[in-house]
Amino acid sequence: MAVRIITDSTSYLPESQIKKYDIIISSLSVVFENESIKEIDIDNSSFYERLENSTTIPKSSQPSISELYDIFEKEVKAKNDIVGIFISSEMSGTYSSACMVKNMILDEYPDASIEIVDSRSNCMQLGYTVISAAKAAQEGKNISEVVCIAQKTIRSSKFLFIPNTLEYLKKGGRIGNASALIGSLLKIKPILTVSKGKTDIVTKVRTKKKALQTIIDIFIKDGKEYGLEKVIVHHINDREGAMEFADQIKKIIGKQVQISNIGPVIGAHVGPGALGIVYCTNNEMV
């Protein structure tokens, strides 16, 4: 018997981490008109090329109940406990579906041990939570301990990003509290975060250069106050910009900074050209 970690594709975990910790991924999909494609089945360059040439912004869809049920049932039949950690319930119905599947499984397998965690975020803020849980599970911790560690990571992490435009967030219905910025984006560069499961405004400045510096300033302040554990630079189809940003951070912390390209589902909602960071601290920030 083991504790198995299940998450969704919007965690954008490095393949090396998925293999190292034997993490199970359930994929969300992007929908171009009448064609639905699992985001794990389309590479980022092909997707963003298609997005650029599309007249409409694709929608996204969550994993089906039947797919989640099959994943859960397989682990239960293998006598494993399950911790499912998913994209914010404010951004997707995936968490709600997982909770529904948990109840369905328990009806059929009353002795099953399943916990579902709402990450309240996405991308590597979700990813870091998943990795911390998977590491704990691999170390032999029980399901309650694994959940506790996952929740601590949620409280010890932050996601800051700069969209190139708010149009994608607006059209995709994921703009959250940043809706107040609509109509003024030509004059400002907003710095956004994910707070209480929704997109929210941190502050706004006049230029992209100033926005990136402001992110670094917040990152440094949090690092000094709470102790920096790890950091990753995210980008949406802007590797050159991400490399420059990562190099800036590297000069500050004195070590290499990993870069991660955000995939189709979140990319379609935020839009190409976005840059940001996710970082974890040793102590809780909330």
TrEMBL record:
Keywords: Lipid-binding
SUPFAM superfamilies reported for this sequence: DAK1/DegV-like (SSF82549)
Single GO term (MF): lipid binding
Signal peptide, first to last residue: none
Coiled coil: none
Source taxon at top rank: Bacteria
InterPro entries: DegV (IPR003797), DegV_C (IPR043168), DegV_domain_contain (IPR050270)
Pfam families documented for this protein: DegV
Protein name: DegV domain-containing protein
